């Protein structure tokens, strides 16, 4: 068992005797060393005075830049129509992270340094004030030679009058020079020219330091910070600090101007490259298109083509017309053959030949009408006159002549129709030959046209793209915009009032620092003040360190009276914490790490509660590393909480063990389970606690450290109060921040602390250490007079 603790100061009595005694001890200790406080204050006030004399105030400088364009990690932009615009570098999205690196680059800072000539600094000899923008003369190189060393080249001049100055040189002697005259030095040829501020510095000495621009750029580059304020909003904060506010503002403003100029130049350069590339490609396509168009022209000329679709349609129309004409000729021939056959038939001699409305020849129709008229006349005469009558001779002659003429006309028309058919057949043959050639012509023409149209599309696209880029190039705007120009804040340091106040505090605190050097270097908590300063959680009590290894100290005799009384006070404070003396009070004991005394305190407090006639049970809820059973000499093999939670034992009464102390029972851990956190999440734990509340006045839960496992967080839902152990010389100070976080998160109900294992002498906790601690340093010394020096020496010996 660990050695344990007590001396209780309650959180409910801040003005009680214990607190008053501790405060009195601290005051006595400090008053004893009052000469050291006086010396410390005087020393630090003097140091503060000289610090203010030599320290130049530094001003924070801040500017804000906004990126207007879209941000992307890709090198492509998709416009609203979904067109890929890789050929348009002006529309490329801004990648803010990349731009931040550009703004922090050495290249830009080097330009800023050269443009502002920051490599040359001017200071007045009297006071050493930096004369940025107020310098009476301006240094400039006529010709730089070699490099400048890291410390820079120092030039000291006296401004005699408006025409000349004196160059101070300890080696070669002082020389006078006219303004604007070239002066040769080891680092190059240079000159000085007066500025508008010259009259204010006439006759004064000016120190000029010329540094290497590379080193100056490196220095300013490290001082400039570029940060993205919010990843969702493209605002970039640019900050630096400078003892001369105007210089700091100029640096940031010039940096932003150089960045914008460089970005615009880069964008325009990329745009010009794109335009040049597109123009070159357009020239190549233009030549190819000319060649393709000539080939198409030659092909059409050779094939006698105008438009292949119209030409093929024409051939089809002519072919249809020929077919129609041939059919009409066939009809005419059939009609003529029928008429001729009728007239040549002996049976039909003298009969009127048949005719047709389809006969198209007017002369034939005229003959037919005459023939019809003569035959009609003959038929009328036959009705009254015999056929042998001489009157029929002229009619028969006329009729014969008309019939002969009619037959001759039919023969001539037949010959004409046959000739027409032959001509149509010959012409149709040519048309068919032309139609057979059209598919091949169409294939060749389509192939040539496809190549020409493909190149023409590319040509048109590139032509439009070049115009778009040219228009953007002519009206290019920056992707960034200055939201806030560089502005300087108020100098926060050094401020005389604050410096002297700090000096006073340091003068008073230095003796305290000396006295508590060991404590300050100690990473572990050594006194209550450290706890109270770091956390807002009330302290339930303090328990002093116990040399004895007996785990249950309150059961011992008179030698343990003090520690027993401390636990009784803790019992009283716990009662006040719960606010009542009713049954079923549940108190959870935990800590940050192991060996902080939670098992010791919970077990001894349970004994004091039992002695106060409160029926008490202590739960060994550290299911990973149980200790309570060992403290009360109980068997760890006995079924316990884990058995109940896994429901292998449902009768709680069979799990509870008597501790050997009247009124105090123990509910052990039971077998170690592989999943204690999951078991504690079950509702069975709530059932267990609720059942115990019906029987017991106080239920004390010994739980695992919360900085190692989450079990205590889970169990806390069943507790009415949580007591958190801090052990002097063991608990790390870093744990106080963790405790504060637990308190702010409201993870525990009625959250209090117990400061355990206090060793007062070892940790200077109180005032009783002084005489015995320092006496050994001067046992053989002669008694000294009570002087200021002797007090100092006494203080040093006692330290």
List keywords for this structure.
Wzc-like_C, ATP-binding, eight-stranded mixed beta sheet, elongated, Rossmann fold, alpha/beta, single chain, five-stranded antiparallel beta sheet, 799 residues
Task: Write structural notes for this entry.
- It is a single chain.
- The protein is α/β, with parallel strands linked by helices and 799 residues long.
- Among the domains are: 65-265, no CATH class; 521-768, P-loop containing nucleotide triphosphate hydrolases (Rossmann fold, 3-Layer(aba) Sandwich); 770-799, no CATH class.
- It is 48% helix and 15% strand.
- The strands form four sheets. An eight-stranded mixed β-sheet has the order 13-20-19-14-18-15-17-16, sandwiched between helices. A five-stranded antiparallel β-sheet has the order 2-9-4-5-6, with no helix packed on it.
- A hairpin with a 2-residue loop joins strand 7 and strand 8 (188-194).
- The chain is elongated.
- Residues 1-16, 73-85 and 766-788 have low confidence and may be disordered.
